[in-house]
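Notes to self, Protein kinase domain-containing protein:
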Amino acid sequence: MENARNMNMRLEVLVSDSKELLEICYDVCGAMAFLESCRFTHRDLAARNCLVDSSLTVKVSDFGMTRYVLDDQYISSLGTKFPVKWSAPEVIHYTKFSSKTDVWAFGILMWEVFTLGKQPYKLYDNMQVTEKVSQGYRLYRPQLVSDIIYQIMYNCWHERPAFYQLLSFFEALREDNRA
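result:
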């Protein structure tokens, strides 16, 4: 297993088409559906916190910020540090975490995967990202992404379905081979 920090270099070598990128997202989504079913909120889901082996099997890691939540909501104390570029508006403004904020971060992770490891909002600092996200700005559709896959990303940033629902979307795509 290798940390995804080197993802862009490794993915260019290992990935032959977007279906393999979809499988990476499917693995992460499956792990997050499990965490969600156990009432855990990861709070730091990003490509840098995923381990990838040579067969492109992906494991979610770095559970240092993970919390057990009874009512699907965890409000962190003031002054808590969090990864702004992967954070939903309610995290940025109120440090309020939930499975829905993990879904937002999953949309950002999908973007990282389909850009072969680019940094989200690379041209902006954290304050600018806060402003832009608050104004409704979302990441662009990566070149390797079909309309169907971008719709999943978009849903992660808007409707924010549960991970088990996202997993169903991925399973349907795998069966239909439409992605």
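- The first strand starts at residue 2 and ends at 3.
- The mean pLDDT is 87.
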